[in-house]
Amino acid sequence: MTKIFNDPSEFAEEALAGFCDLHSDLVRQVPGGAVRRHRPAQPKVVVLAGGGSGHYPAFAGLIGPGFADGAVVGNIFTSPSAQQAYSVAKAAESGAGVVFTYGNYAGDVMNFGMASDRLAAEGIAVENVLVTDDIASAPPSDIAKRRGIAGDFTVFKVMGAAAEAGAELSEVVRLGRKANDRTRTIGSAFAGCTFPGAQAPLFTLPEGQMGLGLGIHGEPGLHDTGLPSARELGQELVSRVLAETPPGAGQRIAVILNGLGSTKHEELFVLWGTVAPLLRAAGYTLVMPEAGELVTSLDMAGVSLTVTWLDDELEPLWIAPAETPAYRRGTATEPDGAITREETSDGGTSAAEFAATDASRDYAAACVAAIRAARTLLHGAEERLGRMDAIAGDGDHGRGMVRGVDAAADAAAAALEAGAGAGDVLSAAGDAWADKAGGTSGVLWGAGLRAFGECVGNTARPDGSGLAGAVTAFAHRIVQLGKADIGDKTMVDALLPFADNFARLIADGQEPGEAWTGAASAATAAAEATAGLLPLKGRARPLAGKSLGTPDPGATSLAMIFTVMGPHFTAAATAADPVEAK
Ligand code: ADP
Ligand code: MG
After folding, report:
1. Ligand 1 center to residue 441 CA distance, Å?
2. What radius of gyration, in Å, describes the C-alpha atoms of the chain?
3. Which of 133, 350, 492, 539 has the fewest Cβ atoms within 10 angstroms?
4. C-alpha–C-alpha distance, residues 157 and 246, integer Å
5. What is the distance, to the nearest Å, from the Cα of residue 16 to the centroid of all Cα atoms in its chain?
6. Do the beta carbons of residue 107 and residue 134 sit within 8 Å?
């Protein structure tokens, strides 16, 4: 149970602020995360680690000489937004390029990808290195689909050391990918973890049971077994990892025995007593092994075993010195000439100016009302959506949607107040949604709303076919970013039936209000029908079987939101009189 907090929704931000104050000799807080206190005298490649909060010391605890140059810090178990990644990169970048490195989760891939596009458009060299070490999350034939867990630590360490030694961007990336290709992890959980303020753990295991193959977001294990002795557990972990020895691997390995949050060091040492002899008996030399908390999952009870097969290139990088708040090895110092960063205003936004017609401003008021209706709905549905997501995902869907819609409603109202037309109001809402919600659904909803707004524009009040075009743009953007097909068990399964039906009913001559109601019913039915599907995209995929019988949370929330937004979007589209803002 997480016991120390104020407002649970501010937990991640307050933890980051406290951490940055405590370690102000090494790190400096910036919008979106933290960077090293010192800026290098010479341009160097900056290695930016990232992901959600709740995994300390991953990721901000690893900022410092020899390790990461900065961390992009999302909400608990939730990908940071593209804006956060962009902002941290801008604060850290020193002229030799940026590499974002993170575990392979859809939300992170999309958000860091969008930030990379934006940096590249400004002429900044940028690359992404994904960690895919979790052997329980996909079979060897599907290795690229594996998620990243404690192997983050070795991969980030190798890249940080390479960048510190002056390697250029392509070289840092090559070495990071090589380390990832040679890293394998298996985890097991004994008890779930609890979000700050939550009444119940994300998942539970029956007393005396262990879930093998856990993810670091509390995704339950792939299968449960009786709790073994430490000796049996060590044998199980070692044999599973060694069964996945990469081709061409040598006999020198880095080893991490990682505690997930509430496993004591003494327990790890007992387990090490089995793990180390087994590895040595298999002919391996253990190079600077680690046992401790390196990548955690809030207060989860559990362990994972990571092995990275070293070679002549990787070993010196693994053993190179590092000096970070959470991890020290040897004596690493800032290179001579490093410059202390002063507080700057990077990442801030200036007030925008809006051009719009009165008709579009009237319609913008209806858009604000639509988003407010979604906000009321989502506050009521938060817990239910979270429970649905916890069955095979990470349980954050309700919370993420509420954070997103709250930010969207505030940004939309502020834009309206500042004189924005409907297009700018919706775009501002989308940007705020993506920035504050994080996660997969956050980036998709944010980008979708922006596309919807760009299509509606700031001049005319849309008619039926204009609305159909905007709905189609919303759907296209989400499919383009998330690359999900119908039947993958995602929000797309409700979204495409909505968009197709709405466009068809409008083309058949129905009034927008009537067409929207028809399309929303189709979306609701399609969302319910996802209960029979196995998830093929997103976090729920590794636990596909568990999700059978439960509808997809993202499809469910989408159908609900479209249903309540409809009257606002459509009445104002057809109404002769302007609609008043509420
Ligand atoms: P996260 O998966 O990052 O925890 P959420 O829990 O907020 O994010 O959202 C989960 C929902 O996101 C899923 O129920 C699904 O509808 C949707 N989703 C996941 N991956 C994709 C994708 N590639 N394309 C479209 N929707 C997706
Ligand atoms: Mg989730």
Report:
1. 5
2. 24
3. 350
4. 20
5. 17
6. no
What is the DSSP pairing of strand 252-259 with strand 290-292? parallel
- The active-site residue, picked from 23, 38, 217, 397, is 217
Q: What's the pLDDT band for 349 if we cut at 50, 70, 90?
A: very low
Distance CA 124, CA 126 (A): 6
- Give the span between the Cα atoms of 403 and 439, in whole angstroms: 11
pLDDT at 390 over 70: yes
- The whole-number pLDDT of residue 347 equals 41
Tell me what pLDDT residue 393 has: 85
Q: Which of 215-219, 243-247, 510-514 has the lowest mean pLDDT?
A: 215-219
490 Cβ inside 6 Å of ligand 1: yes
Ligand 2 midpoint to CA 275 (Å): 33
Query: Which structure tokens are listed for 288?
Result: 């600077």
Q: Quick check: 372 and 53 in contact, CB under 8 A?
A: no
For residue 487, what is the DSSP state?
A: T
Using the structure block, give the residue that is written with the tokens 């190798």. Answer: 158
Q: Quick one: average pLDDT of 367-373?
A: 98
**554 alpha carbon to ligand 1 midpoint, in Å?**
6
E strand or H helix at 346, and its extent? none
Report pLDDT digits (tens) over 169-181: 999 999 999 999 9
Contacts of 468 (CB under 8 A, 6+ apart): 502, 503, 506, 507, 515
Among 58, 55, 90, smallest CA distance to 71 is for: 58
Mean pLDDT of 401-426: 96
CB-ligand 1 contact for 322 (6 Å cutoff)? no
Backbone φ, ψ for residue 475 (5° rounding): -65, -45
> Which domains are seen in the chain, by residue range?
8-327 (3.40.50.10440), 358-574 (1.25.40.340)
Report the amino acid identity of residue 206.
P
Sheet holding 98-103, edge to edge: 27-30, 33-36, 70-76, 46-53, 98-103, 126-131
Residue 580 has pLDDT above 50, yes or no: no
Locus of tokens 């060590």: 234
Does any ligand 1 atom lie closer than 6 A to the CB of residue 482? yes
pLDDT per residue over 117-150, tens digit each?
999 999 999 999 999 999 999 999 999 999 999 9
* Span from the CA of 385 to the centroid of ligand 1 (angstroms): 12
Q: In the chain, pLDDT over 70 holds for what percent of residues?
A: 95
Residue 334, pLDDT > 80, answer no
Other beta carbons within 10 angstroms of residue 426's beta carbon come to 34
Mean of the per-residue pLDDT values for the chain? 92
Pocket of ligand 1 contains residue 444 by CB under 6 Å: yes
Question: DSSP letter string over 37-106?
Answer: SEE-SS---EEEEEEEESSTTTTGGGBSTTSBSEEEEEEETSPPPHHHHHHHHHHH--SS-EEEEEE--H
Asked whether 149 and 188 are in contact (CB, 8 A), the reply is: no
* Annotated catalytic residue 217: yes
> What predicted TM-score, i.e. pTM, was given to this entire model?
0.79
- What residues are paired with 285 via a beta bridge? 252
Q: Which residue matches tokens 């207060």? A: 299
Amino acid at 297: S
| Cβ of residue 537 lying under 6 Å from some atom of ligand 1 | yes
